[in-house]
Amino acid sequence: MSFPLRWRLLDEGTGATIIDCTDIEGLFVDRVFPREPLYERYTLLSCAPSGPLLAAIDGTGPTWFGNFVVEGAHVPGRPASERCEDQCRECFENTEELLDVRVVGHRPARDGSGLLDIDLEGHRRDDDNNRGGTIAPPVVGYRLFAWSTANGSSEETPAGGCRDIAGLFHQRPDIWPPGPPLTLLGCRRRLSGSFEAELAHVRVDGTAHTMGWGQRVIGSVVATRPSTLGDDLVDVMLDARIPEPMATNDRPLWDMWRAGGPAEPNLWAKLDRSDRYLWVRAAAVHRSHAPDKPAGTVSHLDGRYVTDFDAFFCAIGEAVNGPGGWFGGDLFWLHENAATGDGGATPGFRMIWHNSEVARTHLVPGYDRKSWLPAVTFDDLVRYLTEDGVQLELR
Q1: Exposed, middle or buried: residue 39 (CB in 10 Å: 0-12, 13-18, 19+)?
Q2: Is 323 exposed, middle or buried (0-12, 13-18, 19+ CB in 10 A)?
């Protein structure tokens, strides 16, 4: 029996094929990723609150204020009154962002300073600084800033300062822990030595689509064994792990794209938002890179199922490039494709957004607990598209 080759390792430096294989044990795992963040309690010690933090304590403002930035007041040797106005390395490395934060309590500071100890609940942005949040930076006190989310926009507002922060710097579980050691199953030749490789998904037509940084393979061959997939095939065991493995129940999505992609539009509509995000990601990996359609081409966006941010990208991808098409997955790529092209549509194209009232109803101001930022609204998307030259008609 002949088994299809589904995956390919490409040398990161040259792009040359290192090896093809039928499957990869350790790429799909029985977990859900990324893991939901842990909500934690932090205490601002000897704090002098101001602005929205003071309002949360005295009852004149809400106790919830979205995101919260703590910035090292100064490093030893720098005057305490001096704040670097540029985005210097020291400032960046001594800053932490807390997400979805609310005030849950306060009391007089235990040090007798006349200031307050203030309890917050929220969680730390996992890709921020200070050795992954495990080690407190070498600073003397912290400046505090709240990110206002009023009217759907973000604005940094000073919120006072504190001597120290309890509960922030400690070891945490990985939000997206790496997978187990990999085994390349059903390889047609042996492999040895060490390598740094990009992983590519091979479709039935033989085209290979690189997966991205989170699925790179860096390591060495540990052992080789005969494969149960065929007498002339081998399995290659590695000490490498996938940095961001995929969940087993996402495998049918990749199998569909391997077989040629979605055969009709709106197959994503029955998915929840997390899986719609994965749909857009798969569409990005498998995009065709065909020339932009001629000027004057009209795209029709089916808006019946645009009930969240990721659904919009599923729908606009299919409006421009057909079932399973991609036209960006975030605001950066939406702008790049609409304003500069190379996404399937010549800039200045006309798009008719059918059933736009669905998105107007669902994409409203608020706090988005997927991006941990103010929600992107229907009005935002309309403004971004029109500012980038799209001739948008709402129906």
Answers
A1: exposed
A2: middle
* Helices 309-321 and 273-285, packing angle to 10 deg: 40
CATH superfamily of 261-394: Barstar-like (3.30.370.10)
Chain-centroid distance of CA 288 in Å reads 23
Residue 224's identity, in one-letter code, is: T
What's the token pair of residue 46? 């000897």
How high does pLDDT run on average in the chain? 89
Domains of the chain by residue range: 7-34+175-249, 40-166, 261-394
Can you tell me which residue has the tokens 């149960």?
228
| pTM metric for this prediction | 0.88
Closest CA to 223 of 237, 233, 208, 242: 237
Q: Render pLDDT for 12-30 as a digit per residue (tens, 0 to 9).
A: 999 999 999 999 999 998 8
Contact between residue 353 and residue 332 where contact means Cβ atoms under 8 Å apart: no
